[in-house]
Design brief:
By secondary structure, this protein is α+β, with helices and mostly antiparallel strands. The protein is built from six helices and six strands. The protein has helices at residues 3-7, 25-56, 60-77, 89-100, 162-171, 212-222, and strands at 107-115, 121-129, 135-143, 149-158, 186-192, 195-202. It has a six-stranded antiparallel beta sheet. A hairpin with a 5-residue loop joins strand 1 (107-115) and strand 2. The longest helix has 32 residues, at 25-56.
């Protein structure tokens, strides 16, 4: 995998996808067009968040750190270019997501992440509400050696005050702080009704502790208690 493509692996992100899959050729074409437009919007939203962080950085050091990352991700995501790279990891992930999750309810958060160690494991986590008021579904996809995303694991978690945490996640942009819970770059993206709601970018240790993404996902990933098979 090219170095530039590996950069986007150090990420957490969230989204929703509503495109109908059909064996009909026209429907298939519409599906691909939907993914194309979604990808362009997703990339632009992430870059917008980076620009916002540069503008709102608390000091020169933080501003410069975001500027450096902005250059790298800007090149990788194509900046404001509307040309779609059908071999990019984000595009291939959207295709894989659509193949596995035909229906996910109203809102879905997708968290792209890497786990560093002897070898880097590249994961994307998909979060969406269960029909139960206090349950959340979590699905993990893994980018494997064949450079394709594969369904890796799935489970459900009961979360106290889930509705409140869900609403809080959407109501505030979760501005980064000087210390936080993420060991790697984090991007939190929401897609609702087929459109990008936001795509918030966080450098290492800037995602605030206690935010829903931390309490629902990150803490469980760190303790290896997210899925029963890993306990």
């Amino acid at each position: 995998m090219k170095k530039s493509k590996r950069m986007s692996c150090q990420v957490f992100t969230c989204l929703i996808l509503h495109c109908c899959l059909s064996l009909d050729g026209n429907a298939q074409h519409k599906k691909l067009q939907c993914i194309d437009s979604l990808l362009v919007s997703w990339n632009k939203a992430t870059l917008r968040s980076l620009k916002d962080h540069i503008r709102m950085a608390p000091d020169k050091r933080a501003k410069e750190a975001y500027r450096i990352v902005d250059v790298g991700y800007g090149d990788y995501l194509g900046g404001e270019n509307t040309t779609v790279d059908h071999e990019s990891m984000r595009y291939m992930f959207l295709q894989t997501l659509h193949e596995h999750l035909k229906s996910t309810g109203d809102n879905v958060y997708i968290i792209e992440a890497n786990e560093s160690g002897e070898r880097t494991m590249i994961y994307n986590y998909v979060l969406f509400r269960d029909t139960s008021e206090h349950m959340i579904n979590i699905v993990r996809f893994n980018l494997q050696k064949d450079n394709k995303w594969h369904w890796d694991a799935a489970g459900k978690r009961e979360v106290d005050n889930l509705s409140e945490k869900w609403s809080r996640l959407d109501a505030a942009p979760l501005q980064g702080k000087t210390s936080g819970v993420n060991n790697d770059i984090v991007i939190v993206t929401k897609i609702s009704d087929g459109k990008i709601g936001y795509s918030n970018f966080y450098l290492d240790f800037t995602l605030p502790a206690g935010c829903p993404i931390d309490s629902i996902l990150i803490m469980s990933v760190k303790t290896r208690k997210l899925f029963k098979s890993e306990r």
